[in-house]
Write a structure and sequence with these properties.
The protein has 435 residues and is α/β, with parallel strands linked by helices. It has two domains: 11-109, no CATH class; 121-194 and 243-422, 3-Layer(aba) Sandwich (Rossmann fold). 55% of the residues lie in helices and 7% in strands. It contains 21 helices and five strands. The protein has helices at 2-35, 41-53, 55-68, 76-109, 147-155, 178-192, 200-206, 210-213, 217-223, 235-242, 261-265, 280-287, 297-300, 302-322, 332-337, 339-350, 355-365, 387-390, 393-402, 404-410, 418-422, and strands at residues 135-140, 160-164, 247-252, 271-277, 327-331. The protein has a five-stranded parallel sheet with strand order 2-3-1-4-5, with helices on both faces. The chain starts with a helix and ends in a 13-residue tail after the last helix.
Length: 435
Amino acid sequence: MRRTNNYWLCYSLSFSFFLLLIIVVNQFNSNTYLLTTTANRKNIQIIIRVEDGAETYTKEILIVDELNDSTAIEGKPIQNKLSTMQNNTQMTEVIEKILEDARTNIKNELSNYNFSYSGANLLEDLVMESGGQPQRTLIISSWRSGSTFFGDLIDSIPSSYYHYEPLLMFGIKQIRTPAEAGEALKIVKNMFKCNFDGLEEYFEFESKDLDLFSHSTRLWDYCKYDNKNDLCFDAEFTSRLCKLFPFQSMKLVRLRLRLVEEIIKDKDLNVKVILLTRDPRGLMQSRRQRHFCELSSDCWEPSLVCADMISDYVAAKSILQKYPDRLLVIRFEELVLQQNTTLERILNFLDIDARKAFNDFLQTHTNVEVAGVHSTFKVSRNIPFKWKHTLDFTYISELQMACKEAMHLWGYKMAYNQTHMTSEDFNPVDDYKIS
């Protein structure tokens, strides 16, 4: 009787196990059917390939995804996560290679540089990545004042990182009051510190016009290795690359000088500022050829334009009294017509060994003309007084009336009539005093 019971118990257990096995097999076949439909055949192949190449990784992902993601059975999470991991690894390798190339190129470019000009002993003293502080130059100007030409001149300094017009996204307007300047000043400070976090709007705007963005030559030289140029607009990559360069420069045409004193006060930045101004007649003649200027009275209204020139003069006088070694004032006409003297002033002010770089730049940019709105390859000696022969005296007379005070402060002489204006003997540029 006991033996019979044992047989019956074994039979029951075997039958139960057999039923359980049938259920499991049916469930497996059901899942297999789902996977082998036409829509999922590609995913099966992906799973097999992943298992062959990375078995442990695949099993770990499957466990997690079966518990947390209903689409795990289709293999999509495995594909996405593995692709992401592979892409990230490849991109990291590309970035590290670019950064290492940049370090090497900077050392080679500055192998004969006299760092004593910059008050340093070694390159590392001027490199943020090494704990040093770069020399920083901020150019303040306005539209069509020769600022693009001048910015490219400063950018010719060996191993200089150029922040080209970071306030472009503000549009065709002038920032004149502290209330308006908060965000702009924050952007300027962060960029000078090579901190590009939170500047998505800036990158988005810049990505729409690569011609403008390419003025930031050092960044463009390296990020253009990426076929889609995504690195140009990546905050982490841009920050790391920026921190390799011993010299930084920035050009602004939308922020007036009196608001820049906050930047000058920041000892951590130790910025030197150059104000570039221009005869309003030459300035307006150039603006009349650009359609963008018609969009804003800040750009085409003479009374506003010359009020900004007066404001800059007053601010320059005040800053020079407080920080005489932190501000240099240059008129565009001096830069073009008195090159040697003006270059000496710039070199002495910046304390940078860049005489050869400046001379090479001027040699290649002032003796040939290349078409293009933003081109700086022009016969510059013909530019300053072009307004004398292209503008009607009626317009010039009205402009001079609106700009009388600004022209007097900045040393620009009046034209009395059409004949006087076009005369070769009429030199509109006079001396002026600001300190």
